[in-house]
Amino acid sequence: MEKVSIRTSITGKLNKQGFTLVELLVVIALVGIILVMAVPVTRDILTASSLKKASRQLIGLERKLRVEAVRDQVDYILLLDIPGASYYVITPDMTPEKQNDVKKNAKKFPAGVAVLDIINQKNEKIAEGVVKIKFGKNNICPPLVIHLAEDEDRMTLVVNPFLGVTAAYDQYVEISLDDGLGKNAAK
User: Fold this and answer.
1) Cα separation of 163 and 160, whole Å?
2) Which end of the chain offers a freer environment for a tag, N or C, measured as fewer CB atoms within 10 Å?
3) What is the pTM assigned to this prediction?
């Protein structure tokens, strides 16, 4: 004899298939609650400013280059083209032809975002040209401060030689590498 599975609903009536109205309402309510919680986060991600996108782009690239340099045991050189608002990555063993190919395919920052200046390990402020940043296979890069801009908005990124990006400010902050990374020299 074959056993037939019979389900009893909340109201006590026998039910061979389907869901009760109460079960459907509970599921719809849970989906609604999840959507209410997810929409603000999704909206913020989709409408984030180009300046914040560019800073996240640089932070992610810095972390990626550090990891890949150690993993591959190859020094990577990030070239930031200040007037072109773009960047590309090369290795010391690349031929000049390959470097030119990589330069032609340089990635651009989001529209409207510019690199204002970069303060290098010698505490020099560089506001034009191409800046080379070496990510060594020993997981060390030079200390530097990168200032980004979009219209009237400014952002400052501080890169520590051993720890990576250690600070991000939503304003232009004058930071002296002589006084220590991450310290606001204006305070």
Assistant:
1) 5
2) N
3) 0.68
Ranges assigned E (strand) in the chain: 7-8, 14-15, 76-81, 86-90, 107-108, 113-119, 125-126, 130-135, 144-150, 153-160, 164-169
- For residue 4, which amino acid is it? V
| Domain around 57 | 50-179
pLDDT at residue 11 above 80?
no
Q: How many structural domains is the chain composed of?
A: 1
CB atoms within 10 A of CB 55: 22
Under the banding of pLDDT at 50, 70 and 90, the label for residue 185 is very low
Determine, yes or no, domain membership for 1.
no
CA distances 135 to 73, 91, 173, 174, Å, are 11, 10, 24, 24
Q: What angle do CA 100, 105, 108 make, to 5 degrees?
A: 125
121: its two tokens: 């390990």
The Cα–Cα gap between 176 and 21 comes to 66
Identify whether 168 is part of a domain.
yes
Confidence band of 140 (pLDDT split at 50, 70, 90): confident
**Which residue carries 């996240």 as its tokens?**
56
How many separate helices (H) and strands (E) can be counted in the chain? Answer: 3, 11
Left, alpha or beta for 144 (phi > 0: left; psi -120 to 50: alpha)? beta
